[in-house]
Design a protein that fits this description.
This protein has about 290 residues and is an alpha/beta fold. The protein contains eleven helices and nine strands. The strands form two sheets. Strands 1-9-8-7-5-6 form a six-stranded parallel sheet. A three-stranded parallel sheet has the order 3-2-4, sandwiched between helices. α6 packs across α7. Belongs to the tetrahydrofolate dehydrogenase/cyclohydrolase family.
């Protein structure tokens, strides 16, 4: 029997609706309009497309989008300077540095120039530590989106063996930490893993996050496993061999329409948080009062 799909488009739509309601309540109560600054370095077509998508979603939920575009020849010091200015600006609530940046730029140094209280993309060391230790802070958007997607379908994590394929500091590493905090047993796999097929075959939850098309073969998947494909490659191909994996998994994310929409939805939700928008409970209470 084929796996059921984890519909990220549907779950993200609900999160965006909630965020729009929170933003509207913030505007009514204080007149404040949240602002997300997006910083784009260079002329990579895919990056420009992603930034436009994020700007469109900002407009949909009532968040102001401030777009900062820098030349491909921008140095690390120049980029750090721009991010520091945004970090100190009272008009900006959240900052997104579109990645990857050009190869000559020290991406980590750029990330660390973002003030932690404006790191709505969850890319700084401070945000990673907060996620790992359970402190207040912003979670990396794709890992947080994955967790919210699993929660939306009532998929239990405690006691499960989760295999994370990929160890990037903004995806693989933090999603493993979030699952560990939820009492999963976590195994990280990467380019030096010599028995990848065996490791994946023992997983109750597989998270693929390597950016290599169909690296994870369908016949590796354990019967009844949950498969989360966080990869996106040319031709709408993920990191998992979807058709074969679907025949063995219980739940699987499509590509596109799985993890991707959740990433943007979390980004905007955390921007609303940074601006001081009320939580969902406050919206419910306000709605109850208005109905009286």
């Amino acid at each position: 029997m084929s796996a059921a799909e984890l519909n990220g488009t549907l779950v993200a739509s609900k999160l965006l609706t909630d965020t729009a309601q929170r933003v509207e309540l913030l505007k009514r109560s204080s007149g404040k309009i949240p602002c997300l600054a997006t910083v784009l370095v260079g002329d990579d077509p895919a990056s420009h497309t992603y930034v436009r998508m994020k700007a469109n979603r900002c407009a949909d939920v009532g968040i102001r989008s401030l777009r900062v575009e820098l030349d491909a020849a921008t140095t690390t010091d120049q980029l750090v300077g721009e991010l520091l200015k945004l970090s100190h600006s009272d008009d900006v609530d959240g900052i997104l540095l579109q990645h990857p940046v050009p190869h000559h730029i020290d991406e980590r140094a750029a990330f660390e120039a973002i003030a932690p209280h404006k790191d709505v993309d969850g890319v700084t060391a401070n945000s990673f530590a907060a996620s790992a230790l359970g402190f207040a802070g912003y979670e990396s958007c794709t890992p947080s989106g994955i967790m919210r997607l699993l929660d939306a379908y009532d998929i239990g994590i405690a006691g499960k063996h989760a295999v994370i394929v990929g160890r990037s500091p903004i995806l693989g590493l933090p999603v493993g930490m979030l699952m560990l905090r939820r009492n999963a047993t976590v195994t990280y796999c990467h380019s030096r893993t010599v028995d990848l097929a065996d490791q994946v075959g023992r997983a109750d939850i597989v998270v693929a996050a390597v950016g290599q098309p169909e690296l994870i073969r369908g016949h590796w998947i354990k019967q009844g496993a949950i498969v989360v494909d966080a990869g996106y490659n040319p031709g709408n191909v993920g990191d998992v061999e979807y058709s074969a994996a679907r025949e063995r998994a219980q739940w699987i994310t499509p590509v596109p329409g799985g993890v991707g929409p959740m990433t943007i939805a979390v980004l905007l939700a955390q921007t609303a948080d940074a601006a001081g928008a009320p939580a969902g409970e406050a919206i419910r209470l306000a709605s109850d009062q208005s109905a009286r």
